[in-house]
């Protein structure tokens, strides 16, 4: 995603905000509800699903597209409720500027005003460092392109939240999903809002077992892929 595109803060259908690129008609989250999408795709279909399968002394999560920090923040809230230790790695080539972060209303919309310092810390903490966000949530933000990821057998769960294939098709092909497959441990899971046939086939080509699931508001389906 080019740096010089016009950016604007918009309010989505569930009242939560996101960052919109008018020239591309693309945004970080669904216009049908940023929080609703995050909870449905990444928490319900990813986080809750994998915790229901087995116990993890530490759950290792990789997010492809750290962006606004919404997925990381909701994961922190859910992990706290579940008493689950999290090691969270967020990849982002173009970090959201702090002067835009202050206009994002996720803390209020999630009724989590007591956790405002946590959300702020997620954005203000140094890149490339292991940051202790709480006693059970550790965050590493890495400024890199997705194709540069070299992790092997490191993660239990991947949130694949890249910009859509319509504007960045290179992020949804076999090469990228091979990187994802290799980054996951055996039985690791990848979830994404996309349900395109070409995306599903690319996942299957690298070895994933892929499920079609009901999608979030505004989308009929989404995909969940498991490494066997």
Gist of the model:
With 228 residues, the protein is an alpha/beta fold. Helices cover 31% and strands 27% of the residues.
What keyword list fits this structure?
3-stranded antiparallel beta sheet, alpha/beta, Rossmann fold, 7 helices, 228 residues, 8-stranded mixed beta sheet
Any chance you could write out the topology, listing elements then pairs?
Layout lengths: L7 E4 L5 E5 L4 E2 L6 H20 L5 E6 L5 H13 L3 E6 L6 H4 L4 H4 L6 H9 L5 E3 L4 E6 L12 E6 L13 H10 E9 L4 H10 L1 E7 L6 E7 L1
Parallel strand pairs: 4-5, 4-8, 5-7, 8-9
Antiparallel strand pairs: 1-2, 2-3, 6-7, 9-11, 10-11
Description:
The chain has helices spanning 34-53, 70-82, 98-101, 106-109, 116-124, 174-183, 197-206, and strands spanning 8-11, 17-21, 26-27, 59-64, 86-91, 130-132, 137-142, 155-160, 184-192, 208-214, 221-227. The chain is α/β, with parallel strands linked by helices. The protein has one domain: Vaccinia Virus protein VP39 (Rossmann fold), CATH 3.40.50. An eight-stranded mixed beta sheet has the order 6-7-5-4-8-9-11-10, sandwiched between helices. Strands 1-2-3 form a three-stranded antiparallel beta sheet, with no helix packed on it. Helix 6 crosses helix 7 (197-206). It is globular.
